[in-house]
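[Discussion] Sanity-checking designs against the backbone

I'm trying to build intuition for which residues belong where. Below is a structure token string of 131 positions. I'd appreciate it if someone posts a full sequence so I can compare it with mine line by line.
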């Protein structure tokens, strides 16, 4: 009976049993601690990875922003050139209109002068002027 009382059905002695529980508890705690450490390492690596990805994304966005700024400068330059051309065309149009009016005035003066010349012989005769 002594033998049976010292050993249970698993074959462990009654004296080893508390130690077995302690050692299995210790092993379990060690395993949990190891898993927690791995999880923390993984989490830390994930944060590092996320930070690296965020930096890369920021660099891409900065590059795109710079490209957009350069394109905006080009477009503004082109717009300024078009506006200058339109101003010149407007000025030309104004000049042309002025020249057109001046030409009309001069043509009217020429016509009036021609009429005066046609009437001049009769005027000379009336005034008593004879060449």
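Best answer:
Here's mine. Compare freely.
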């Amino acid at each position: 009976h002594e033998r049976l009382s010292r050993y249970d059905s698993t074959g462990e002695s009654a004296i080893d049993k508390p130690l077995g529980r302690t050692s299995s508890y210790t092993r379990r705690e060690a395993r949990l601690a190891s898993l927690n450490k791995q999880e923390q390492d993984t989490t830390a690596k994930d944060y590092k990875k996320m930070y690296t990805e965020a930096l890369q994304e920021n660099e891409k966005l900065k590059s795109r922003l710079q490209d957009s700024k350069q394109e905006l400068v080009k477009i503004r330059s082109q717009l300024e050139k078009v506006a200058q051309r339109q101003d010149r065309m407007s000025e030309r149009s104004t000049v042309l209109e002025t020249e057109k009016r001046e030409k009309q005035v001069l043509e009217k003066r020429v016509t009036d002068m021609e009429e005066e010349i046609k009437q001049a012989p009769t005027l000379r005769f009336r005034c008593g002027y004879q060449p």
